[in-house]
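Same chain as my last thread, 449 residues:
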Amino acid sequence: MPQMGESIAEGTLSRWLKKVGDSVKRDEPMFEISTDKVDAEIPAPSAGVLVEILVQEGQTVPVQTVVARLETDASVAAEVKGQRSEVKAGGGASLPPSPVPAGDGTTASPTTTAPRPAAKSEEPLQKPPQTSDLRPQTSTPGNLEERLRTKSSPLVRKIAAEHGIELTGLAGSGLAGRVTKKDILAVIESGVKPAASMHAPAAIDTHGPPVEPWPGDRVEPMTKIRRLTAEHMTLARRTAAHVTTFHEIDLTRIAKIRQQRKTEFEAQTGEKLTYLPFILQAALQGLAKFPVINAVASGDRIIYRKAYNIGIAVALDWGLIVPVVKNADNLSLAGLTRSLNDIAGRARSKKLRPEEVEGATFTITNYGVFGSIAGTPIIPVGTSAILGIGAIEKRAKVLPGVDGEDTIAIRTCAYFALSFDHRIVDGADADRFMAFLKTTLETATEPAA
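reply #2:
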C-alpha cells in the first residue's frame, strides 16, 4: 500500500485490475486504491506474474502493507502460468497455496491437509474499532502514541482548532488511535469536549437515524468515494452559514470571441477552447478586487489567502472530485485551458496526486453541462464561496434599441450562482463580486493568449 501523501496513514484497496496468474508489465496498473484525498491506479513496480493477492477488495490497510506478490523469475512465472492453465482446463484444480503471514510476523506454510481458511484470508489485516474512545488519554505527552494520534489530516486538525477540541484528549478509530473525520464529527455532534467530560457518548450517527430497507429494495454499501463525499458535504453544510445569490449573465460577447478564436487556438495549443477559461479569468479578477471571497473563517479570525487556488468540480462515473489549479492567477487563457483539461482528464483516469486535490481557496462547479439552469452548491470546507454555472443557452432578451425603443434579441445567457459563507461574507460583498463578474464578461474584449 503506497504512501499517497504526508498525512495519509492508510488506504482502501478498492479494485484489483489483475488476477492471480496474470502477466504484468512494469508500470502497468495493477489495482486501484482510495484514500481520504484521492482515488488512484497503482502501477506494478516491475514486470512479472501476479502469484498471490494478500489484501482483498474493500479492505483498508496501513501504508507499506504488502498487498500482493509478484514473481519476477521467468522460469517460476512460467510454471505459475502453466498451473493456472491446468486450473482452467481441469475445472477443479487450484494453485498451490502461498506462504501465509503468521500473527507473530513469521511465515507459515500451509499444507495440503490444512489449507488456509477462506474466511480468514478475507478478513482485514487490521480492524479499527467501530467507535472512538473520547476519554482523555494517560500517555506521556510527546511520546510515540501521542505523536501518532495527533498526526491527523490537516482537515481534522482544522476542524478541531475551530471547535476548541484538543486532539491529544481523543483516541480515534484510525491507525494507532489517529482521530479521523468521523471521530471529530462525532465529538462535535455530541456537544461535549473531551477535556470537560470523562464519559462522553462513544458513537453518534452524524447522518440521522438508520433507515431500514423494504421488501424488494436493493441494498448496496457506499463506495469509499461516496462515503467521503457524504462526510465532506455534511461537515461543509454544518460549518458554513450558507447563502446563495443568483445573477443572469449575458455571454454573447464571450461566445463571439470563442467562435472567432477556437480554430486558431486549437491549432496553436492542441486544446479545445471552452467558456470555462474565460469565466475563470473574470472570477480571478473579481477575487483580487473582493479578497473576502478568497478568504476563510477560522474561529474569530478571517484568513485572507494570498494564493488563488481554484478548485474545479469534476463529475466522475463513480463520484465527484475537486482537483485544484494552483496559482491560477499566474496563468494565461491558454495556460488555464491546458490546466483545466489536464486535471479533468487525469481525474477521470485516476492519475491525480493527493496534493492536487487540496488547498483550494475558491471553487467553480459547472453543473450546466448536464442541462441544469440553476443550483445552490455547497461551500467546500476551508473556503468561503463557490461559483455555480448553469446551462449556457440562447434566450430571447429585451434590449434597448438605437432609437430608444425596446427590442427583442437572441442572446447567449446563463444563470450564475454564488454560495457564500455569511459568517464573513456579507450579501453586499457577494453581490458586488457577482456584479463585477457580470460586467467583466458582458463587456469582454479580446483577451491575451
